């Protein structure tokens, strides 16, 4: 596992239930502000979905974004945590 991946997973572990961050925000938090695509790629290879809640990372425009098990599953997980989603976007 690379230094970058470790930092991404560590940052995402800290996102509490019912909250979310954008891929861009995670990239900034780990010190690589332009690496939001790399954050997404890293989360796509998440080794432990129970410990690293990558479903809590969304796109900057409020859209759900990708998820290894599909956007329906990601939407369902977020809704179970109390996140309001309408028309495929997080309601802020």
Q: Please, could you describe this protein's structure?
A:
The chain has 92 residues and is mainly alpha-helical. It has a single domain (3-90), classed as Orthogonal Bundle (Arc Repressor Mutant, subunit A), CATH 1.10.10. Helices cover 40% and strands 9% of the residues. The protein contains 4 helices and 4 strands; from the N terminus they run αβααβαββ. The strands form 2 sheets. The protein has a two-stranded parallel ribbon. Strand 3 and strand 4 (89-90) form a beta hairpin. Helix 2 packs across helix 3 (36-44).
Describe, in short, the structure shown.
With 92 residues, this protein is mainly alpha-helical. Helices cover 40% and strands 9% of the residues. It is globular and about 35 Å long.
- Identify the strand order in the major beta sheet: 1-2
Report the C-alpha radius of gyration, rounded.
Answer: 12 Å
Give the overall pLDDT as a whole number: 95
Q: How does CATH name the architecture?
A: Orthogonal Bundle
What class do helices, strands and sheet pairing give?
Answer: mainly alpha
The fourth-level CATH homologous superfamily is: Winged helix-like DNA-binding domain superfamily/Winged helix DNA-binding domain
Amount of beta strand: 5-15%
The CATH topology assignment is Arc Repressor Mutant, subunit A
In the predicted model, the low-confidence regions spanning at least 5 consecutive residues are none
CATH class: Mainly Alpha
Instruction: Give the proportion of residues in helices.
Output: 40-55%
């Amino acid at each position: 596992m690379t230094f970058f991946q470790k930092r991404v997973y560590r940052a995402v572990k800290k996102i509490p239930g019912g909250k979310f961050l954008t891929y861009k925000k995670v990239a900034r938090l780990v010190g690589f502000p332009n690496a939001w695509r790399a954050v997404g790629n890293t989360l796509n290879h998440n080794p432990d979905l129970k410990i690293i809640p990558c479903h809590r990372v969304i796109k900057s425009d409020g859209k759900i974004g990708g998820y290894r098990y599909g956007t329906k599953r990601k939407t369902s997980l977020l809704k179970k945590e109390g996140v309001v989603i309408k028309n495929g976007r997080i309601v802020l």
